[in-house]
């Protein structure tokens, strides 16, 4: 952690851009932005924000796309010490209104963001174009360590998105822009970030922080307007991908291989990989998988490199503490709580620890293995059974590529297990086979009473498999 009289985040990022004055740091189509040009964008936007009265502690909402101006606006918001709230695509109008009601002093939009703000019934206050018209001022980072630097909202799968509050102290103490603090897995990853794809939303915690890591490692952030084909078309060396997205990529490569010769790192996030799926991806794509485990509330907890055992999420770094069982963790960049939600904060943020509500253990070799979700359960005859172990057993069946287990109402047992299965090679496993497999390992109460074959799971706006949609479809059926 820097001395208290040193400038807070994003000073380390600005120093990286200063050192990168003449090299490309951001590329979008034919537009290439150097470090010096990015600093000029940040300085102009920060000047415009201050000119509009935005300073330390003020709420600043951003409804922006993915381009150099959006990246500069995020940094500028932190330069002036604001509490930055990125509003990502895919939210309903009601969810956007909720986020823009979190004590927001100003809203910054581009053309697309303005349309979303109007649709949500929120007046547009500032635009990136207007802010860039201001003259640049010297970049002095004014954030106060104890102030909230950003609110990172969760997926909203339970209704209104929860806003995780991360302080300037936490962002300043995080390792992303400080190579001397990089864990071994990140040091390995950093050598592969020559051309890192960004897409979807820069308000994504994962997307933004790997972008900062890319700059620090000497690479270029490359915008992918159409990420499906961008690895080949843009000669990308790295990109973020969800577990379902990885499954699609592997299947496509097996069916009709594309030229992925530039690819060095796939940053898998959002949900665990089964050991079989992990091994298959390594076999088909080569040693490029970096399987990260973290949460909005914690930031990165651990990361598996291509050399780590499939089925693990790597070894937690030395500055990350993990308690086995229902996992409690402490990380340098963790959130301090949920904004304006003391009740939920008390449930998750406990005595300096973050309750992940995931289940896992550290094995004898120091690797973290995830075994399920503490709240992802089915209650049969008043007995609680975790879904994670059931999914792991079902995934061992030779005809199962992916499996998602949900609890459904049952007149006799209260709840029962419903298994949604993505079959291998179009052969749907028999329900009886799956029941026998689970019964032998976990008991009859955990055996699926119903089976539905699907080609792929529905995906939530966060990019994760949406088990709530699966549960609703099972209940309706």
Automatic annotation (TrEMBL):
<keyword id="KW-0436">Ligase</keyword>
<dbReference type="Pfam" id="PF13193">
    <property type="entry name" value="AMP-binding_C"/>
</dbReference>
<feature type="region of interest" description="Disordered">
    <location>
        <begin position="453"/>
        <end position="477"/>
    </location>
</feature>
<dbReference type="InterPro" id="IPR045851">
    <property type="entry name" value="AMP-bd_C_sf"/>
</dbReference>
<dbReference type="GO" id="GO:0016878">
    <property type="term" value="F:acid-thiol ligase activity"/>
</dbReference>
<dbReference type="Pfam" id="PF00501">
    <property type="entry name" value="AMP-binding"/>
</dbReference>
<dbReference type="InterPro" id="IPR025110">
    <property type="entry name" value="AMP-bd_C"/>
</dbReference>
<dbReference type="InterPro" id="IPR050237">
    <property type="entry name" value="ATP-dep_AMP-bd_enzyme"/>
</dbReference>
<dbReference type="InterPro" id="IPR042099">
    <property type="entry name" value="ANL_N_sf"/>
</dbReference>
<protein>
    <submittedName>
        <fullName>Acyl-CoA synthetase (AMP-forming)/AMP-acid ligase II</fullName>
    </submittedName>
</protein>
<dbReference type="InterPro" id="IPR020845">
    <property type="entry name" value="AMP-binding_CS"/>
</dbReference>
<dbReference type="InterPro" id="IPR000873">
    <property type="entry name" value="AMP-dep_synth/lig_dom"/>
</dbReference>
<feature type="domain" description="AMP-dependent synthetase/ligase">
    <location>
        <begin position="21"/>
        <end position="339"/>
    </location>
</feature>
<feature type="domain" description="AMP-binding enzyme C-terminal">
    <location>
        <begin position="390"/>
        <end position="464"/>
    </location>
</feature>
């Amino acid at each position: 952690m820097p001395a208290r009289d040193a400038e807070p985040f994003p000073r380390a990022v600005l120093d990286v851009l200063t050192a990168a004055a003449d090299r490309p740091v951001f590329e979008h189509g034919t537009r290439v932005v150097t470090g010096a040009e990015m600093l000029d964008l940040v300085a102009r936007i920060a000047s415009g924000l201050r000119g509009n009265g935005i300073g330390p502690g003020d709420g600043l909402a951003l409804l922006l796309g993915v381009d150099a101006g959006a990246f500069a606006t995020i940094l500028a918001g932190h330069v002036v010490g604001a509490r930055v709230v990125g509003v990502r695509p895919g939210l309903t109008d009601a969810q956007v209104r909720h986020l823009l009601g979190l004590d927001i002093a100003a809203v910054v939009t581009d053309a697309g963001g303005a349309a979303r703000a109007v649709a949500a019934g929120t007046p547009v206050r500032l635009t990136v174009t207007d802010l860039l018209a201001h003259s640049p001022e010297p970049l002095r980072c004014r954030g106060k360590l104890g102030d909230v630097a950003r609110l990172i909202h969760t997926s909203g799968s339970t209704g209104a998105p929860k806003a995780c509050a991360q302080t300037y102290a936490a962002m300043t103490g995080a390792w992303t822009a400080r190579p001397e603090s990089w864990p071994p897995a990140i040091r390995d990853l950093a050598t592969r970030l020559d051309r890192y794809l960004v897409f979807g939303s820069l308000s994504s915690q994962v997307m933004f922080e790997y972008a900062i890591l890319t700059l620090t490692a000497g690479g270029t952030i490359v915008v992918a307007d159409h990420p499906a084909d961008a690895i080949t078309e843009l000669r990308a060396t790295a990109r973020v991908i969800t577990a379902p997205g990885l499954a699609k990529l592997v299947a496509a490569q097996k069916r009709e291989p594309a030229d992925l010769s530039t690819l060095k790192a796939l940053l898998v996030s959002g949900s665990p990989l089964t050991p079989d799926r992990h091994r298959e991806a390594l076999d088909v794509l080569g040693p490029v998988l970096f399987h990260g485990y973290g949460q909005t509330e914690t930031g990165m907890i651990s990361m598996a490199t291509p050399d780590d055992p499939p089925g693990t999420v790597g070894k937690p770094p030395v500055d990350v503490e993990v308690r086995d069982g229902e996992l409690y963790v402490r990380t340098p960049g963790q959130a301090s709580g949920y904004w304006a939600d003391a009740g939920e904060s008390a449930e998750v943020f406990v005595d300096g620890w973050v309750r992940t509500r995931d289940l896992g253990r550290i094995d004898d070799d120091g690797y973290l293995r995830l075994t399920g979700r503490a709240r992802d359960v089915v209650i049969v005859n008043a007995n609680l059974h975790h879904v994670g172990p059931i999914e792991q057993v079902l995934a061992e069946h030779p005809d199962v590529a992916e499996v998602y287990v949900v609890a459904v109402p049952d007149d006799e047992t209260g709840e029962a297990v419903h298994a949604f299965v993505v079959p291998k090679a179009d052969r749907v496993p028999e329900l009886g086979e799956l029941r026998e497999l689970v019964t032998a390992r976990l008991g009859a109460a955990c055996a699926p009473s119903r089976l539905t074959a699907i080609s792929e799971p529905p995906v939530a706006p966060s990019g994760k498999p949406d088990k709530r949609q699966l549960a609703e479809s099972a209940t309706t059926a």
